[in-house]
Amino acid sequence: MTQPVDDxxxxxxxxxxxxxxxxxxxxxxxxxxxxxxxxxxxQVLGREAVPPLCVVRPRSTDEVSAALAYLVGRGVPVxxxxxxxxxxxxxxxxxxxxxxxxxxxxRILGLDEEDxxxxxxxxxxxxxxxxxxxxxxxxxxxxxQSIDLAQVGGLVATRSSGQFSTRYGSIxxxxxxxxxxxxxxxxxxxxxxxxxxxxxxxxxxxIGSEGAFGIVxxxxxxxxxxxxxxxxxAYAVGSMRVGLDLVRRVMREGWxxxxxxxxxxxxxxxxxxxxxxxxxxxxxxxxxxxxGYAQAEGTAVDTMARAAGLRPLGPAPVxxxxxxxxxxxxxxxxxxxxxxxxxxxxxAPWTGIADIYEQAIGRLVDEVPEMVYASGHSSHSYPQGTxxxxxxxxxxxxxADDAARVYxxxxxxxxxxxxxxxxxxxxHHGVGRFRARWVPRDLGTSYELLRRVKTALDxxxxxxxxxxxxxxxxxxxxxx
Length: 480
Ligand SMILES: Cc1cc2nc3c(=O)[nH]c(=O)nc-3n(C[C@H](O)[C@H](O)[C@H](O)COP(=O)(O)OP(=O)(O)OC[C@H]3O[C@@H](n4cnc5c(N)ncnc54)[C@H](O)[C@@H]3O)c2cc1C
Fold this sequence. Notes:
The chain has about 475 residues and is an alpha+beta fold. The protein has helices at about 5-15, 25-30, 35-45, 60-75, 125-135, 150-160, 165-170, 170-175, 205, 240-255, 265-270, 295-305, 315-325, 330-335, 350-365, 400-420, 440-445, 445-455; strands spanning about 20, 55, 80, 100, 110, 115-120, 140, 175-180, 185-190, 215-220, 225, 230-235, 260-265, 280-290, 310-315, 340-350, 370-380, 380, 385-395. The model is unreliable at about 475-480 (pLDDT under 50). Flavin-adenine dinucleotide binds next to strand 3, helix 6 and strand 10.
């Protein structure tokens, strides 16, 4: 260990206690990566990731405050780290940085059954919270595929969306209040209220902030009583365009089935083989709510689906999806074999979505010779539009540089196609470091607002540098 690093660790230990500052090679190795596929693959191919100088593990808001004031005061870049399930490189260290993780901030602080809120420290894993709420008859209704990996603070920081978002909303709809620590150690709280007309909604500043403004330390989430009733049905669909048009009309009429998933023909064959014919897509619908609600909604959307020519398949494909929806072992196996396996989620208004789906898949298949497969589904819908979630596999040479080249070829085609056709570059995985260069184009003139907020809250640019905002946008990139 070099002397300055030694001093830094000594200074941190004197403020937080020796057990809250970790520097063993094993811990540094684990904290040098999140779940982004490219660095994981490059590690398999022999390229080690950059480790942090050390890992700080505060137990309280006061300790987060002390750590940030000390590190930022010494000019050290800080990388907030939650569950480490992010897939955009957002919690991976930059050279010379210190990770501040929230693994010791894991207390559930209280459930208010009258006001329907639960308050937690940021490091509570969502799965732990949901199990705890379930025992008491409640749920947040937030079920990302990474429920077993992600923490509440990380979900807030990335603007996460869960599989049942059409009914319950995404994390921005579920946060009732929060507390965060700014780069200089100042603690700020937005107390929970049913609604507040006192200026802009300051909760939203933190939702999607990706550690670039400070660290979220406490969150109050809305909860609902666990729904007693469910209705499930799957349908074979002739094409993505037919399916997207039906989903658009369901949303337009105001129905909100909790799950609305339209998988293309490639995914239908891969995951629902035997339920649909070759070339058919599959639509999964699930409605839940108080007694009477789910059956009423189910009957209405079923009538619309049959009128649109969809073939009912019964509830079995939805039950199969429910059982296997969080299995990701297959992805890890692919990476170990040297395959790029990745997902890219974008969103767009209804007017552009089918074109984005067709053109992005078409370009990947035609222009990237290493593609093994490219498929997509829509899984989060709104009256104004929907998301697309591309699932992609490619086989580069067994070489870290070639993996990066193929990865770039894939990402640039999906990002460029989405932007050209009026979509947004991320629906719910956030920006991290990998997507930061497209942020100025995505936000247009409001990028300047984001940049000024960043400068005001983090004047030295030490909070998660290069994540969310590009470090140095090329001249002219904001002129849109
Ligand atoms: C298999 C798999 C499935 C996934 N499915 C979904 C899904 O269905 N829906 C979805 O939305 N996402 C999904 N994701 C992405 C990921 O789980 C989410 O982005 C999640 O919100 C990250 O939470 P985390 O606690 O793991 O955060 P991390 O990965 O640790 O961090 C993510 C970002 O947030 C910042 N951050 C973390 N904690 C804090 C904090 N307390 N304060 C400030 N900044 C912080 C980090 O610096 C980083 O920039 C999936 C990922 C995987 C690997």
